[in-house]
Structure formats: C-alpha cells, structure tokens
Design brief:
Residues 28-170 form the Lactate/malate dehydrogenase N-terminal domain. This protein is an alpha/beta fold and 338 residues long. It has 10 helices and 11 strands. It is globular. The chain binds 1,4-dihydronicotinamide adenine dinucleotide.
Length: 338
C-alpha cells in the first residue's frame, strides 16, 4: 500500500510538472516593456504557460539579461530578446498576442493621468509597429492612463487601416483580481469561487465594482459596499504609497496580466467559455469605450455582456452616472492626441 501511495504521489507530481512542461498549443506572445517592473514577472508567468511556444521580449534597454535568465527555465517556450527601436518590428512578426506594459509608472501624489505625456507617445509608437507587423494580433494595453491609451491605440490602428475593435483590450484585470480578493476576505468566502465584475474605466471613481453581481451571491450592508468600493478604487494608490517612490503595482499586475493573456490564448485555442472584464470599444453605454465583461473567442471579443448593467442597485447606478463625464473626458483626450 505504501509503495502504491508513493507511486501515486509521484505520478500526480509528474502530471503537475507536465502541465508546465508539455506544450499544448503554439502561440507566440510579445511583451513590449519586458525589462520593467511589470514586464519581468509577467514574462516569467507567461514562460510557464503550456499554450506558448515563443516569448518575444522587447524593451529599449536591459532585456538581454532578462531573456537569458528566463530561457533557463525548463518550460517549452523559446525566449527571444529584442532591444531598441530598430528591433521592434522583428519582435512583433508572427505574434498572436502583444502585451504593452511599457512606460512610466506612478510615484506618490501622481494620478494615472499625470503619466499621459510620457506614455501616450510610447503607446502610439508601439501600436504603429503592431499595425505594420502583426495587425491580426490581440493587443493588451497595460500602460496608463488606460482610459486614454486605448483610444490612442484605436486611432493609430484606424489611421493605418487595420483597426479591429474586437482585438484591442485595455487590461483592467487587476481591478477584478483586487475586488475578488477584498470581497473574499471581507465575507470569509473561498477565494477561488469569488467573481466580481468591474465596469467603467481604470482610474479612481471610474473603477466601478458591481458588488451586487458578485458570484456566489452574497449580501452586503451599505457600509460594506461603500468601504469595499472605495478600497477597490484606491487599491493602486495603496501600493504606490507603500512602495514610497519605488513605483506602482508590479507583481499583482503581472499576475492579473498573465491571467488575461492565458484567457486570450485559451479563447484563441477554441475554448468556448472564456469571459474577462476589459476596457474595450463598446455600445453598452453612450461612451465609445467602456470596461465590462466580454466573451472571448478565436477572433477576439465575441460578445459584450449587457446583463451586467441591468438591475444595478441605486448606489451602483449613481456611481455609474457620476463616472461617465470623467471617463468621457479621458477618452476624448486620447482620441484627440493622434
Ligand atoms: P517600469 O518603469 O518598471 O517599466 C517600464 C518599462 O518600459 C521599462 O523597462 C522601460 O525601459 C520600458 N520602456 C520605456 N519606454 C519604452 C518604449 N518606448 N518601448 C518599450 N519599452 C519601453 O514601470 P512598470 O511598473 O512596469 O509599469 C508600466 C506601466 O504599467 C505604467 O504605465 C503603469 O502605470 C502601468 N500600470 C498599469 C496597471 C493596470 O492595471 N493597467 C497597473 C499597474 C501599472
């Protein structure tokens, strides 16, 4: 019996290892800004995906070492490094998903919008190269302010004649990850079960967790709703202040971005049951871009989920009405940049 148990344990362990070691599909993922605070742990997490055959790491500096380091992990994907603008086109050729965490991050006292002047140009240049080299790829934009950088990307793609709104995503997964964590803690729920849709945009009061739509169904007092909503909205600032000048969320962001990449790859691989929240072109409200749950498929967004916006509580409806003008202004700022 002991021998059998040892053999079973060994078999289970080997199966667990094989999950990381055996390629199941062969997608190529590029990360622009791969040597940064988010880029490095994100690259590591994607290196562990069995769905990835090649990982293209691009940055303006310091990416060679990151790639050499990662390439020693015995998971199947090949790691290639690309440094500087002259290598950007090659980093994008043949790629299925491009993730952009390039650019400056917040320091204490800064809003996401304060990053606009630096990051708008970085996103514009990155997306121009994507349009020229991998126009069919899913584009995941992490660089802030997401509310403006996604509209900038859309304008660039339109100007290049290759805009597919179903494949352009602002990454808001971290808002969902935080909402799930805080709600599970507050209500003593099993983390793995909790799912809170987060809609609106990705900054301050524009981040609107729909606590009434939490799954599994759970009730909150008015005080709990207020406390949780404010904490989810300010969670980024919580990290910025704790890091005291050393940047903003990188590890939790990498975790969230890796989840969004994995979901996208599963959708590309034909899984018909993939849903994520994301800031995308939308007709769910009068705003041209809006974060909501979306169904992902092989060709990108298959459907937006309008039911999330129906039957909102009075608190949520009011918060939605209040965030719209601010979000509209951030979107217009992006559209006018190009
Ligand atoms: P970081 O400063 O540690 O890394 C940024 C990286 O971008 C650096 O390696 C830098 O060399 C690179 N870079 C600069 N210009 C570039 C260019 N033209 N092309 C390619 N790479 C370039 O910053 P961190 O902490 O990794 O944050 C990156 C971005 O992600 C920031 O804009 C930050 O605000 C945003 N962010 C977004 C979140 C979200 O929920 N969407 C959450 C946390 C951060």
């Amino acid at each position: 019996a002991l021998q059998r148990s040892v053999a079973n344990k060994a078999q289970k362990q080997s199966q667990r290892l094989q999950y990381h070691l055996q390629p199941r599909a062969s997608f190529k993922v590029a990360i622009l800004g791969a040597a940064g605070g988010i880029g490095q742990p994100l690259s590591l997490l994607i290196k562990m995906s069995p769905l990835v055959s090649a990982l293209h790491l691009y940055d303006i500096a310091n990416v060679k070492g990151v790639a050499a380091d990662l390439s020693h992990c015995n998971t199947p994907s090949q790691v290639l490094d690309f440094t500087g603008a002259s290598e950007l086109p090659n980093s994008l050729k043949g790629v299925n998903v491009v993730v952009i965490p390039a650019g400056a991050s917040r320091k204490p006292g800064m809003t996401r919008d304060d990053l606009f002047n630096i990051n708008a140009n970085i996103v514009m240049n990155s997306v121009e190269a994507i349009a020229d080299n991998c126009p069919d790829a899913f584009i995941h934009i992490i660089s802030n302010p997401v509310n403006s950088t996604v509209p900038i990307a859309a304008e660039v793609l339109k100007q290049k004649g290759v805009y597919d709104p179903k494949k352009l995503f602002g990454v808001t997964t971290l808002d969902v990850v935080r909402a799930n964590t805080f709600v599970a803690q507050k209500k003593n729920l099993k983390l793995i079960d909790v799912d809170v849709p987060v809609i609106g945009g990705h900054a301050g009061i524009m981040i609107l967790p729909l606590l009434s739509k939490t799954r599994p169904s759970v009730s909150f007092t008015d005080e709990e709703v207020e406390e949780l909503t404010v904490r989810i909205q300010n969670a980024g600032t919580e990290v910025v202040e704790a890091k005291a000048g050393a940047g903003s969320a990188t590890l939790s962001m990498a975790y969230a971005a890796a989840r969004f990449v994995e979901s996208s790859l599963r959708a590309l691989d034909g899984d018909g049951d993939v849903y994520e929240c994301s800031f995308v072109q939308s007709d769910l409200t009068e705003l041209p871009f809006f974060a909501s749950r979306v169904k992902l498929g092989r060709k990108g967004i298959e459907a937006l989920i309008p039911s999330d916006l129906q039957g909102l509580t009075e608190y949520e409806q009011k918060a939605l009405d209040v965030l719209k003008p601010e979000l509209k202004a951030s979107i217009e700022k992006g559209c006018q940049f190009c």
